[in-house]
Amino acid sequence: PQAPSGRLDPVAALAEVARSFRGLLLVDEAYVDFVDPALGHDSLTLVRTLPNVLLLRTMSKGYSLAGLRFAYGIGAPDLIAPMLT
Question: Per-residue pLDDT tens for 49-63?
């Protein structure tokens, strides 16, 4: 779900935005651990197929690790590489 709306947008809708957008699409998945598995919501397919998508996730919500402030990003290697230098 997306904060602050709390809406779970379909992966197909996010893919359409990424395909029509010339910049970087940043998808905040802070609450993805609370999505019902029966919905089959898998946004990792966006990263595998679209080079301009970056997923941000955190361990603070779903894993009760708020004190650690641990988060990570998932994206195409060409997108991540400049951030590592």
Answer: 999 999 998 877 777
Q: Give burial (CB, 10 Å; 0-12/13-18/19+) of 76.
A: middle
0.70 exceeded by pTM: yes
Supply 53's token pair. Answer: 């998508």
Counting DSSP H helices and E strands in the chain, the numbers are 3, 3
